[in-house]
Amino acid sequence: MSRLDTSSGEYLARREAMLAKLAELEAEQAGAVAGGGAKYVERHRGRGKLLARERIELLVDPDSAFLELSPLAGWGSDFPVGASVVTGIGVVEGVECVIVANDPTVRGGASNPWTLRKTLRAADIALENRLPLVNLVESGGADLPTQKEIFIPGGRIFRDLTRLSAAGIPTVALVFGNSTAGGAYVPGMSDHVVMVRERAKVFLGGPPLVKMATGEEADDESLGGAEMHARVSGLADHLAADEHDALRIGRRIVRGLNWVKRGRAPGAVREPLYDPGELLGIVPEDLRIPFDPREVIVRIADGSEFDEFKPLYGASLVTGWARLHGYPVGVLANARGVLFSEEAQKAAQFIQLANQARTPLVFLQNTTGYMVGREYEQGGIIKHGAMMINAVSNSTVPHLTVVMGASYGAGNYGMCGRAYDPRFLFAWPSAKSAVMGPAQLAGVLSIVGRAAAQARGQAYDEEADAAMRAMVEAQIEAESLPFFLSGRLYDDGVIDPRDTRTVLGLCLSAVNSAPVPEPAGFGVFRM
Amino acid sequence: MITRLLVANRGEIARRVFRTCRDLGIETVAVFSDADDGAPHAREADHAVRLPGTRPADTYLSAGGIVEAALRTGADAVHPGYGFLSENAAFARAVLEAGLTWVGPSPESIAAMGSKIEAKALMAGAGVPVLPSLALPLPEGSRAGAADGLAAQTRDWPYPLLVKASAGGGGRGMRVVREPGGLVRELESARREAESAFGDGTVFVEPLLERARHIEVQVLADAHGTVWALGERECSIQRRHQKVVEEAPSPAVSPGLRARLCEAAVTAARAIGYVGAGTVEFLVKDDTVAFLEMNTRLQVEHPVTECVYGLDLVGLQLRIAEGAALPETPPEPYGHAVEVRLYAEDPAEDWRPQSGVLHRFDVPGAGTAFAPVRHGLRLDSGVEDGSEIGVHYDPMLAKVIAHGATRAEAARRLAGALARARIHGPVTNRDLLVEVLRHDAFLAGETHTAFLEQHGLPGRPAVPPAVPLAALAAALAQAAANRAAATVQAALPSGWRNVPSQPQRVSFRVGPAPAPDGAGADQGVHTVSYRLTRDGLRADGLPGTVLVGAAPDAVVLETGGVRHRFEVARHGGVTYVDSPLGSVRLTPLPRLPEPVERLAPGSLLAPMPGTVLRVEVKSGEPVAAGQVVVVLEAMKMEHRITAPAGGTVAELNTAPGRQVEAGAVLAVIEERE
């Protein structure tokens, strides 16, 4: 049960710090929502068109939830935050779908390298979780100056569409505007295609290119207009009178999929006994100070119930069973940052138990990595860490990861970091990820430099060392922050801690669109 | 003794008579048309006989069919109710000839009063004051020559005039004529309506006494020579010559005037040897008292007299029919009673009758039904939840009656009950009735037959002030319903977004749906825009509004520290929001409407289902703005469909006798350039 003292100065200070970070997050997200800015938004609206998010709002069921993915994609790059595309999971006619909507107010909806990564990530989510994919298409094609980073890997977009289809996962394209050249294969590869009259333009080559290539004079409409595709080429299955009509037809198509989720249905849902609002005051600003993850679990778990596994063994890692929005889950949460041999073995055993019970796992990260030092190396920390990483890697149940605080070193791997393909990974604004802490990293560089100077018989320049350490520390700190990592698609989004239960509940529902996976082929190894 | 009684009627009056029968231990027999199959009156009678068909002539006006039904069921008496055959002497005679007891005056009395023209003459002879009838050598048909002759003869008459059906009642076949030019047309129209409604097209003309009071005296006479005059009722507040608010006693009748009226009424009854319950109607203006007519039956508004006198008039009718004698004098009246007639009609749209399913009908606090009440509320209703309000009969849903020690008390009680009533379905005149009952002029007793016109009622349909909060409540209730019905992610917060980009929006059409021809009390579209944030509700335009709780059927909102509970019901695509702030009808507009086929400009649509009576133009003919193009008969009323602007008849898609659906394109007028 909770021991959190919400009147303590410590709690209030942590809360204050978290709120400040959330204000920054809100500002960054507002930038993404603003799209190409007022001028382009006005111009778009002036053409009687809906914005990307307006299209999504009208596509999804009234009053249902929408989880936007990777909203900060492109953060810290030369491209606008959001990467000119909106992706997410929404419910259409009672069917959870992955929705991908180009934002034509941002440079005409052109794809840049981050757009590509964000779009590919959305397709991965659709495939892994068996979620029908709905594309709301209006894109001017590739951002030509960065074509070298887009053209070759970008082919995957079209490959993914047809692989989804082959896997029995329907794909729908609602074409609102330009979808030309390579983009023409989005409707081309989709199962169901709707085009908006007088708006959709779908062709491999537009009038200038055709003129250059063959000398033929042709207009937009005859090359790729919606009427033409609906009546002549057959590329469009439905001709929509306007954008609203296209969305209406899109909803009708999804209704007609007769979609059945193949996973588990949730049980009764109970709200936590403790206020999720208090999650703001749990993580210390200084991540060297540990916090009890049970305070988090009781604020996200159904009825605040948590059935702990091996509470007396490897106490630096908390493991146990809970329910979240009616779904049973196994939880692994770092309690004191460091992972010792016991924690690693406990984790490996627990992961196997979850696989045996086919129960999804939730990783709550706050780890500084596996313990180092003579005693621990000799005690086999690498072997034991390897067991945990082995278990995480080959576990077949869905994994959901939340980075609450630190995520350093191989702890990031053992606790199912991005490279371990959790179905979803979200970070709190308090999160930090790097190979090690900035101070440690700078210190390591300093020690190595000093040793090198010594070897060369040179005097070590202490002043330069201090400057180097400060610079490296600042750089690593900046590059371990969640906006930066989210910008590079190393997570699926930075979330408000108070939304953790909602986000995980939504993801657990989404992962259960796919069948419960088969367990691995061995009995559970006792550790 | 009567042991089994057939009521030759439907709706609330049939139920009213049945209630007394049950009280007295008399078995009941209902008759019902196909349109009333399963109606409450047919269900609750001990025996029920189907009268095949829906047209009144085949059913409730079929004297033969009803007498046959009475014989077949072994009934020994027939009560005619009001309307239909209640003042049909031939029917009364047929009942008597079949050896059954007729609950009503003798066929001779009915006949004497049945023709308003003759009744006036009879009354004048007996010394009862009457208005002069204008001699009218009525030409047959409307041939141009005859009409011209008539116009010449009537040029000097004291306009405005009132054309009335001699056999009429309920405002049918009645027309106001303000200038000589309109007389011929109105006469024809009144004659047709009278013919259709009463089977007798005779009409007459008398001067219109404007802004007079309609005051009537209830009489009750036994076969032994006792005649009671049970005081007066005032029924001045009328629309289209149809009473809507009735009360007893009249606020304007002094004891002296009352004595004069009662004396005149008793004189009238005695003049024709009247037996049974009847009503003598007068127009009263200043010192002028003029006999209007005598209704030889129970009146719609009899409950106000029952409440004031504590009498069961139907019970007394039955006893008189059985030959019993009335006590020498009636009981003393006490207090004041007011009745309103709740109609399925849209006062803002020229009182257009409404049809459709009455999903919910609940008038709270009714102490009695069909029986006198003291210091309380009485509900005489012909409908119940789920009743279908059809196009075949008068669209009266119910009568609501309040009694109190004073007039003000009764009016307040009645207005309060109406305001709290839950009426979900066709548009009704409820709001208008509440407005009247709370109107200063009404409360001051300043009632007359042009009351509604004088006070501009119904007012221009303003958007009720309750709309913003009611619409917000409707949206939140709908959201709660959507969440409750969700098949996935059901426990997630309503409309949750990790990256909020816009509020949740729901648009409603306020008020009744526009008629298919586009006309209608369009109170506009209201868009609710709100977000449910971590810190609670943020409703655009309603700052500081707190959401206390939302369920699919009820929402509690707090504004300015005051909580309001909104009950929300959804039926057939319409959301009904009831709260102490008022009842609001909202039609949620689809987020993604289907693209509509555009109608040719100038299309004239049928405003409601009905039968085409006449087509007054030919294809290709020029028409002037306002010219009648098609006359439609629906709900027993003639509806004129006129050209909205001058032009040419480009298309004509209909012919007399044809049944049309609401929204059918009847004609297309090509506007003149």
From TrEMBL, chain A:
<dbReference type="GO" id="GO:0016874">
    <property type="term" value="F:ligase activity"/>
</dbReference>
<dbReference type="InterPro" id="IPR029045">
    <property type="entry name" value="ClpP/crotonase-like_dom_sf"/>
</dbReference>
<dbReference type="Pfam" id="PF01039">
    <property type="entry name" value="Carboxyl_trans"/>
</dbReference>
<dbReference type="InterPro" id="IPR011763">
    <property type="entry name" value="COA_CT_C"/>
</dbReference>
<protein>
    <submittedName>
        <fullName>Acetyl-CoA carboxylase carboxyltransferase component</fullName>
    </submittedName>
</protein>
<feature type="domain" description="CoA carboxyltransferase C-terminal">
    <location>
        <begin position="22"/>
        <end position="275"/>
    </location>
</feature>
<feature type="domain" description="CoA carboxyltransferase C-terminal">
    <location>
        <begin position="272"/>
        <end position="527"/>
    </location>
</feature>
<keyword id="KW-0808">Transferase</keyword>
<dbReference type="GO" id="GO:0016740">
    <property type="term" value="F:transferase activity"/>
</dbReference>
<feature type="domain" description="CoA carboxyltransferase N-terminal">
    <location>
        <begin position="18"/>
        <end position="269"/>
    </location>
</feature>
<dbReference type="InterPro" id="IPR045190">
    <property type="entry name" value="MCCB/AccD1-like"/>
</dbReference>
<dbReference type="InterPro" id="IPR034733">
    <property type="entry name" value="AcCoA_carboxyl_beta"/>
</dbReference>
<dbReference type="InterPro" id="IPR011762">
    <property type="entry name" value="COA_CT_N"/>
</dbReference>
TrEMBL record, chain B:
<dbReference type="GO" id="GO:0005524">
    <property type="term" value="F:ATP binding"/>
</dbReference>
<dbReference type="Pfam" id="PF00289">
    <property type="entry name" value="Biotin_carb_N"/>
</dbReference>
<dbReference type="InterPro" id="IPR011054">
    <property type="entry name" value="Rudment_hybrid_motif"/>
</dbReference>
<feature type="domain" description="ATP-grasp">
    <location>
        <begin position="120"/>
        <end position="322"/>
    </location>
</feature>
<dbReference type="InterPro" id="IPR005482">
    <property type="entry name" value="Biotin_COase_C"/>
</dbReference>
<dbReference type="InterPro" id="IPR011764">
    <property type="entry name" value="Biotin_carboxylation_dom"/>
</dbReference>
<feature type="domain" description="Lipoyl-binding">
    <location>
        <begin position="595"/>
        <end position="670"/>
    </location>
</feature>
<dbReference type="InterPro" id="IPR011053">
    <property type="entry name" value="Single_hybrid_motif"/>
</dbReference>
<dbReference type="InterPro" id="IPR000089">
    <property type="entry name" value="Biotin_lipoyl"/>
</dbReference>
<feature type="domain" description="Biotin carboxylation">
    <location>
        <begin position="1"/>
        <end position="457"/>
    </location>
</feature>
<keyword id="KW-0092">Biotin</keyword>
<dbReference type="GO" id="GO:0046872">
    <property type="term" value="F:metal ion binding"/>
</dbReference>
<dbReference type="InterPro" id="IPR048429">
    <property type="entry name" value="MCC_alpha_BT"/>
</dbReference>
<protein>
    <submittedName>
        <fullName>Propionyl-CoA carboxylase alpha chain</fullName>
        <ecNumber>6.4.1.3</ecNumber>
    </submittedName>
</protein>
<dbReference type="InterPro" id="IPR011761">
    <property type="entry name" value="ATP-grasp"/>
</dbReference>
<keyword id="KW-0067">ATP-binding</keyword>
<dbReference type="InterPro" id="IPR005479">
    <property type="entry name" value="CPAse_ATP-bd"/>
</dbReference>
<dbReference type="GO" id="GO:0004075">
    <property type="term" value="F:biotin carboxylase activity"/>
</dbReference>
<dbReference type="Pfam" id="PF00364">
    <property type="entry name" value="Biotin_lipoyl"/>
</dbReference>
<keyword id="KW-0436">Ligase</keyword>
<dbReference type="Pfam" id="PF02786">
    <property type="entry name" value="CPSase_L_D2"/>
</dbReference>
<keyword id="KW-0547">Nucleotide-binding</keyword>
